[in-house]
Specification:
Elements lengths: L10 H8 L1 H9 L16 H9 L25 E5 L6 H16 L3 E5 L4 H13 L17 H14 E3 L10 H15 L3 E5 L14 H18 L3 E5 L23 H5 L2 E7 L10 E9 L8 E8 L4 E4 L7
Parallel strand pairs: 1-5, 1-6, 2-3, 2-4, 4-5
Antiparallel strand pairs: 6-7, 7-8, 8-9
Helix pairs in contact: 1-2, 4-5, 5-6, 7-8
Protein name: SF4 helicase domain-containing protein
GO molecular function: 5'-3' DNA helicase activity; ATP binding; single-stranded DNA binding
InterPro entries: DNA_helicase_DnaB-like_C (IPR007694), P-loop_NTPase (IPR027417), Twinkle-like (IPR027032)
């Protein structure tokens, strides 16, 4: 005869040995069989509590510029699309932002920057970090060049802060290849940010029955899932299509070559624009146009201005944002 401590193999044994009342209690108190992919909010209460108490980076981290603090903050798990006409400083601005975030928060980054030679990219990052020019050259003007000791210290900082995704053969890298290596960097080195720069340097072979719009949507979905699953912020640079009737102003996010999904599917959309007309203001003036922010906790739509120091590659706040 079974007792209460024995386990019955089915409902019939419960009925036989313990009676109908016991069977009724078992049925009423039974836990539902879990269905993969179906959840209740209670499954996430611990995450909601942590979000409420801001135990992590739920409110985002500052870019390091006062002018942008209310417009755009960087939160893990989000995708930011950045565009702008050629030679507007998109990549330089991202580099400067990463240096700021590393200095303030200690974040590490993985870089898939296909238009930069490694030594040139290192120079740009070191200039922003050390705040001195790498060379004694014309662009440095009268600013003192970084010393060999500063260079050695900077190289150590580079090695500890950044990891590189490089395609060493003649073929173009696919987005799946990039994300696999980025995943390894997250798990092995604890990186918090990924830069893919630019979109047009990736391998874009697609099935003959797939449109470009469908293809772009698929790519962005993969990137967003990577960002969310690995709590990693992704900056994705995409160039605008040829602007035949360009008036000199900042382009629109819908001008990005390929698909309107770039603005539709991203969490944040930013246009970086540099003034080229001395009649419109100083030539060192850079306009940061925040065109989309999905999460109101992180920021809002608006524009800010920074000044660019050509000697050191730094971007600096401008005291009077209206004096542009």
């Amino acid at each position: 005869m079974k007792n209460e401590n024995d386990v019955c193999k089915d409902a019939n044994e419960v009925l036989m040995y313990f009676g109908p009342e016991a069977l009724k209690n078992v049925i009423e108190n039974a836990e539902l069989y879990p269905i993969r992919g179906l959840f209740n909010f209670s499954d996430y209460f611990h995450e909601i509590d942590a979000y409420y108490r801001c135990h992590g980076y739920e409110l985002g981290v500052s870019t390091g510029w006062e002018a942008l603090n209310n417009l755009y903050r960087v939160a893990p798990g989000e995708l930011t699309i950045i565009t702008g006409v050629p030679n507007s400083g998109k990549s330089e601005w991202i580099d400067a932002m990463m240096c700021n975030i590393n200095e303030r928060e200690g974040w590490k980054f993985v870089l898939c920057s296909m238009e930069n030679k490694v030594q040139e990219h290192a120079r740009k990052l070191l200039e922003k970090h050390i705040k001195k020019p790498f060379f004694k050259a014309r662009y440095a003007e009268t600013v003192e060049r970084m010393s060999e000791l500063e260079l050695e210290e900077g190289k150590k900082w580079l090695n500890e802060t950044f990891h590189l995704i490089r395609c060493e053969n003649d073929s173009l890298p696919s987005i799946n290849w990039v994300l696999e290596l980025a995943k390894a960097a997250v798990l092995r080195h604890g990186v918090r940010g990924l830069v893919i720069d630019p979109y047009n340097e990736l391998d874009h072979q697609r099935p003959p029955n797939q449109t470009e719009t469908e293809y772009v949507s698929q790519i962005l979905t993969r990137i967003k899932r990577f960002a969310q699953h690995h709590s990693c912020h992704v900056w994705f640079v995409a160039h605008p299509r040829q602007l035949q009737h360009w008036s000199g102003g900042p382009p629109n996010m819908y001008d990005i070559s390929g698909s309107a999904h770039f603005i539709n599917k991203c969490d944040n959309g930013i246009v970086v624009h540099r003034n080229r007309d001395p009649k419109l203001g100083p030539l060192d003036r850079v306009q940061i146009c925040v065109r989309k922010v999905r999460n109101k906790v992180i920021g809002c739509i608006g524009e800010a201005y920074l000044s660019y120091d050509r000697a050191t590659g730094e971007f600096k706040d401008i005291e009077d944002q209206h004096a542009t």
